[in-house]
Design a protein that fits this description.
The chain has 103 residues and is an alpha+beta fold. It has two helices and two strands; from the N terminus they run αββα. The chain is 36% helix and 18% strand. Bound molecules: zinc ion (ZN).
């Protein structure tokens, strides 16, 4: 149901966020020695950005992950990571691109 095209976005957004959060720890555990993209210190968090959902079989979600040294959104590396994503979305070609931000 969550993977169908007409699934209610308020529900699917929360579901996808929980799914991504669950896999964040798994990905970090699978990659010991993973370093922050911006300062090189050991990564303790992945800043994740949902890139695309594919409604095929099996349903697939691709997520951009930026390893970070901090869990605090106000730290310099986290701010840089957010700016990287914002610039990427802002430079996405084509008009009418919809950017959805869940709460
Ligand atoms: Zn860092």
């Amino acid at each position: 149901m969550f993977c169908s095209r007409d699934a209610p976005r308020d529900i699917t957004s929360r579901w996808v966020s929980n799914l991504v959060d669950t896999h964040e720890e798994e990905v970090l555990a699978r990659n010991p020695g993973c370093a922050c993209l911006y300062c090189g210190k050991p990564a303790i968090k992945l800043q994740t950005t949902l890139a695309i959902t594919l409604h095929g079989d099996p349903p697939t979600i691709q997520v951009l992950c930026q390893p970070l040294c901090t869990k605090n959104r106000d730290d310099a590396c986290a701010i840089q990571a957010q700016e990287t994503i914002d610039q990427g979305i802002g430079n996405y070609p084509g008009r009418g691109t919809e950017v959805y931000r869940g709460s």
